């Protein structure tokens, strides 16, 4: 994990392993359960944004100027069969998700890293986070989660995947082909990393 102020955040998207493909087709509650099983929790929106922006408040994880292709946000959009995806966990949904999946292996783009060492905060897979009380993101009343960081084909209604982008259009039960997550935990609880 990467220490960021009073908390730590996974260096990579779940499964938090360099060189592994990040999870996708996940709900926010899948993320909540996966993180809890490892003694962690789903990141809050405020934590995620702070980790992405770094101590200097950058617009993008790597700086203040957008650089196409630095992060995995430059793949083409492929038309989606929502009817097939809605059949999860049946094979048609898994086959459709596999057809659409274009994420890079975690850490594959060495420049797509924050000042503190978290990779792929924008692009790759969109990341579920727990909506913060201070959130200014637009979402429907009662939604407890939002998606951050965009994904491999960019952002919905935004030309550049930034640390500030939020997709609040879906409930945490929404399962979509491009959504994953990463975990956080209080810094005092984090296990020190090996030298």
Q: Would you write up a description of this structure?
A:
The structure is a single chain. The chain starts with a strand and ends in a 9-residue tail after the last strand. With 195 residues, it is an alpha+beta fold. The strands form two sheets. The chain has a four-stranded antiparallel β-sheet. It is globular and about 45 Å long. It has four helices and eight strands, in the order E-E-H-E-H-H-H-E-E-E-E-E. The chain has helices at residues 28-36, 45-53, 82-85, 91-100; strands at residues 2-4, 7-9, 41-42, 126-130, 145-148, 166-167, 179-181, 183-186.
What would you call the quaternary organization? Answer: single chain
User: Mind describing the biggest β-sheet?
Assistant: 4 strands, antiparallel
* Residues in helices, as a percent range: 10-25%
- Compute the average pLDDT: 93
Poorly predicted residue ranges? none
Structural class: alpha+beta
Q: What percent of residues are in strands?
A: 5-15%
Q: Note the total helix count.
A: 4
Described by the principal axes of the CA atoms, the overall outline is globular
Radius of gyration: 16 Å
Count of individual beta strands: 8
- Read across the widest sheet, the strand sequence of neighbours is 1-2-8-3
Distance between the termini: 13 Å
Give the topology string: H per helix, E per strand.
Answer: EEHEHHHEEEEE
């Amino acid at each position: 994990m990467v220490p960021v102020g009073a908390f730590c955040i996974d260096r990579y998207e779940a499964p938090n392993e360099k060189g592994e493909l990040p999870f996708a087709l996940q709900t926010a509650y899948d993320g909540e359960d996966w993180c809890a099983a490892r003694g962690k929790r789903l990141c809050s929106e405020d934590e995620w944004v702070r980790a992405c922006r770094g101590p200097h408040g950058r617009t993008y994880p790597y700086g203040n100027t957008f650089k196409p292709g630095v992060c995995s946000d430059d793949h083409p959009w492929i038309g989606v069969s929502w009817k097939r995806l809605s059949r999860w966990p049946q094979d048609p949904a898994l086959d459709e998700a596999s057809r659409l999946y274009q994420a890079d292996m975690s850490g594959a783009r060495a420049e797509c890293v924050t000042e503190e060492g978290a990779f792929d905060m924008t692009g790759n897979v969109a990341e579920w986070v727990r909506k913060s009380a201070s959130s200014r993101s637009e979402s429907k009343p009662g939604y407890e989660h939002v998606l951050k960081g965009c994904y491999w084909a960019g952002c919905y209604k935004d030309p550049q995947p930034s640390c500030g982008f939020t997709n609040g259009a879906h409930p945490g039960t929404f399962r979509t082909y491009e959504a994953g997550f990463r975990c956080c935990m209080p810094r005092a609880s984090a296990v020190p990393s090996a030298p």
